[in-house]
């Protein structure tokens, strides 16, 4: 298992999904080896608004920015006045003494420069996305827990030096393990014990301590059903099925597919729950087209073909192959995940055709890890798709035809 994972902010080839896939793979590897991982989720209070201009300019100078450029940035940040407007009424303007201009092109860059050294040279893995920061470690002994605690204290110290506030009331700890007797260490920030949770929403995905993702799947199915109800009510008078499909794809299906490589179900119970959302939409579209609902028990494949949609299972499979494609083409940066993928060296006369080697997994967690899922899905379509010489459009075309 790789000792360090460093993924930072709002940059090209990195996204919330690459962040989530990285942590999911680390957790899957550890739990598949019957270990425990403690993850500390931090909360920086109003981080974008608390960026100290003086500290930021000093950091820019340390990076080698020329004096004239630093002065230009100083001018850009200083003497900015703001006010609050509500229903046509405006407050008195006030001078902005800190923070980066949100919504600007330079704002995210300045924020990245300011915040990245909070975790520089830590001897535990960490992941950053904007002001979302988590540090974690495989904890097999009290020494490992103390090592993680030391890093928490170091981050807290660096936050104070940068005039940032680490809100201990909103920071929390999750111990990911399937052990019957986990090591439950009381991690602290400034003497306050962190709240211990059994599950947490991380960048839109609910992680539970057993890494089952059952709670997440039930949650997104519920929100998708509600969104579908709104779409069907709003489109009751529509005569154009294409418009209704666009609304469904945009407002409903997207909820069922976000970061699916992280939580994609391996149990029929969870997969069927998601497909029920789409089935309800399909039946309503068939009613619009034919003036009657399809008979009870009508095969899902017939409904999908009539409406012109893919099953959610096929969509998740397609997405995993595209993610693998992007990894090897340098379109996504996910170093820890990439290093877990092994290329097979073919022997003379060998019947094995797959270019990737899928290692042995000990548990269902290992089987549904992002790397294993990507490789198994790709292996099933490898005779038809070569990710080293095809394009994304060709991958999508194959799945749309084969569905």
UniProtKB/TrEMBL annotation:
Domain Reverse transcriptase: 1-207
Short name of any one Pfam family annotated for the protein: RVT_1
One GO BP annotation of this record: DNA biosynthetic process
InterPro entries, per the entry: DNA/RNA_pol_sf, RT_dom
PROSITE patterns linked to this entry: RT_POL (PS50878)
Name of the protein described by the UniProt record: Reverse transcriptase domain-containing protein
Lineage: Eukaryota, Metazoa, Ecdysozoa, Arthropoda, Hexapoda
